[in-house]
Amino acid sequence: MGILGVAGFPRQRLAILTASLLACLPIAALQARQPDEASVIRGVDAAVKARVDTVAGYTVTEHYAVFRNADENHPVAEMTVKTVYRQETGKSYTILSQSGSEIIRSMVLGAILDNEKRINLPGNREGSWFTSANYQMKLKPGGTQRLDGRDCFLLALTPRRKAPNLVEGTLWVDVKDDSIVQIQGTASKSPSLFTGPTQMMRQYVNMSGFSMATQARATSNSFLFGQTVVTIDYRDYQIQLRPSP
After folding, report:
1. For residue 213, is it within any domain?
2. Cβ-count burial of 98 within 10 angstroms (0-12 exposed, 13-18 middle, 19+ buried)?
3. What pTM value is reported for the model?
């Protein structure tokens, strides 16, 4: 007879059973962290709504740099602005400093700021949100990845309409709270007849419980300027939250 273990089980059999159960634990843990696609999408929508309902406004310093023709060591134009966002009125800008080509500053950076003002006006901004109202979302197969120290779900995004501010690409969302970590892809529509589709990336961090942009990059090609890369660094956030009810 074999040596008995717990509850009369032979110890060899008990060891085999224990090893089998332990081998299943990583699989069970992984499955527990992989909700179905519909629940992830509902979580993303809820996280966006929570930000809209809670963040009354913010100020941030944004530094823009423009590079041309694959030279990303020497910007041809730079601009630093103080951005003020208020939910009731949208965005306003104060230029703190600027240098480089006046034409580039006007035609590239000026156009970016004007577009940001327009799409952040009340009644317009809803059309740019990363929600299921604006995008078809699909959880990518095996779609988890660790990014900047955060475990993320990966969602494939397809805009429900063509617009320069809607991106076809990939959305990374935090598995803990469904907040946005990164977006990367191509604008679904070119901003003008003279430029090709813009490739863009924007990274976010969690501040006061909500996603706030920290870095962005956009690459486009145009008849006038050739390849143009614009980078944006965001710093010195001051966030105003609505009082708790």
Report:
1. yes
2. middle
3. 0.82
